[in-house]
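Worked example 2:
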Amino acid sequence: MLGAHIAVRFSMKLHIKSIKTRKTFTIDVPQGVAAADVKSAIERQEDIPVSSQRLVFGGKPVREGVPLQELGIQKDATLHLVLRLKTYVELRVRVMSGLTFDFDSDPRAPVNEVVLSIQELLALDERPRVLCSDGRALSPAAPLDQHGPLKNGSLVHLILVPEPGLPSLYAHLGVKPEADRARAYGLAGSLYARCGGIFGVAAFVDRCMDAWMADPTLNANDRVATWHQRAQRCGFKFLVTQLMGYLCGGPQVYTGLDMAASHKHLAISEEEWGSFMRALGGVCAEFALPADDTTDLVAVVASMQADCTLGEGEEAPPNPGRAAPAGDSLYARCGGAYPLALFADRLVDALLGDPSVNIRLDGKDRSMPSLKYLFTELVCALAGGPETVTAPSLPAAKLSLSGQDFVKLLGCVPSAADHLESTKLASELAQMLHQDGMALVMERPPKWDAKLKVNVKGGSRQASATPTSHEGMRIALKRVGDEAGAPLLYVPAGSSGFLLALEEAAGASAKAQWRAATATLGFEEVDGLAGIAKLPSPTDKDVLFVIDISGSMYGNRIQNATTNALTVFDKFTSDEDHVGLAWFNHQYNEKLPLRPREASHRAVIEKTRDAAAGGTAFYDALIKASGQKPLSSNSYLIALTDGADGHSKRSIEEAEAAIAQSPWTLLVIGLQVEPNVRQTCERLAKASPDGMYIHAADAGKALDEAFAKVAVQFVMPKVKSADAAAAGGGVRGM
């Protein structure tokens, strides 16, 4: 009796669900046993030979010889039983979420039953999926072996069916900011992650779309050729990027039509589909994708063939068109994703085409296609559409504009939205971006409680009328706009601010009213740009000195370098600026972190006169310095050197790339440089958009010219018309 009591006490109950019969039975096994003991218990109870059993728990095979507890299998757990009969075929199933799994299947089983079994084994949700083999989808109702002989080890892909409105695959992560990185770059192992997340998927789709639209076989089909219309192109790129993100295992929610509804009317033939797939393969080769990634991407696209082409004897249905979105949201009134995709595309193109706008592109994550896609889904979501925003808090996924550049974006809205039915919609879009999108588009959310530093003309009376904080200015302008009947959008820009008046529908008296009221608040209109005004402020800037103290600088060179640095400090900086100092030889030494200018900083710079020693790593120093984050909108990196690099670990090409991607303007002051070294210095300076190489002897006049650019006139970017941009592409590539 005691032995029986002990046996019961130390046994545990397991539930075994047969994939073949869909029935569940229960067994009792001692605690601490391994898989072999469970299989023996199943054989005794159900008369299923151990050699015919495969056990699966939590989507993974139960490893032989490992105690169940080490595999996380506790009492009352459910294990799946897969039969391994001699007539069965072992398939290697790959899911785009990143899992590859061996599955034994009866070759006579219908494909849809096989799909259900795999979904259950892997604990996948019940959203629709299709099984693909050798680049084609298998017919759901047909037996496996009807699609040709399948050998043991044959690779099949389990791929999602793109139906609109299904929840995100990443819904379980919630909306916490820390989950944004996973949403942008993907969960480990997924095809989405292997492609580089949304950044890589967007770049890949952009290139595929360009290849497909240039394909003469596809263009011979008049219905397909309509892709070349600009509105179609932008909308298609957006929806295909969204679709491929979802099918590759990303968090995107597909919002377009199902594949049959959106493609059958195009009457795509087998020949055209073959050309379409060859173009896809060409892009995979162009991107030098690994073989597994190429195989998976081809399978994903091939899974949609039956819904995208006409079968034998099938006639093309009428074009369903694009139904107007339901409701009265701004999204619906604009016409939905297609018109808004064109709007977003034209806006981003305008900003990228303006050299004064600082949008960082790195050729990897932050490319033109990825920023256009991410901005489009943001615009659609803010306007009330069904689109979701991939990673709203991730800096790499934002345009990351300065205050001044955000004003330029808002100012371009009327031109970028001129294809919409009403100018009122443009005004609503601008207000939407200002009110709901500012923190999601700007590099840093505005600090509304920050103090204003404004040079107000007109005496102390006018100065006393100017609010002292950004929040105070926003409230004051809201009141002025309400009284004048013209929305006034205020954007902080450092210690100053900009005003954009949406005055298209305002009468002359309203315009005069807001102009008079905002002038009292200290605003000055920007010449030639109706509706834009700025609070005049000191031309605050960053000046980071990077001084060569290597042995070759000993003597006159180090003395001249120090004297030039002090001249810049005395003549070209003020208390509104930030100043920093770094020395370099074969190492980089930060002597003065970038901070508000103080008179005591002069003495720190003066100590440079006695510092010459060591080798020269100029390229390394420039890479280090250009990676520092500026604190002002006008930032100058002033390198003083004889330029003779002999110790850098990084190349001049790497230095050029770092400078080109940096927000700093590089000014190189050469000290008794040799002609060949001067060419190197000029090359590095040219990598910066407004960079300059300056002879030390000519520094005074040249620096006057360089720093005068701080007060350069505010100019709006130019927006391409929808027709002019019909050929697609953009200002800067990937």
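The longest strand covers residues 588-596. Residues 1-9, 459-463, 729-734 have pLDDT under 50 and may be disordered.
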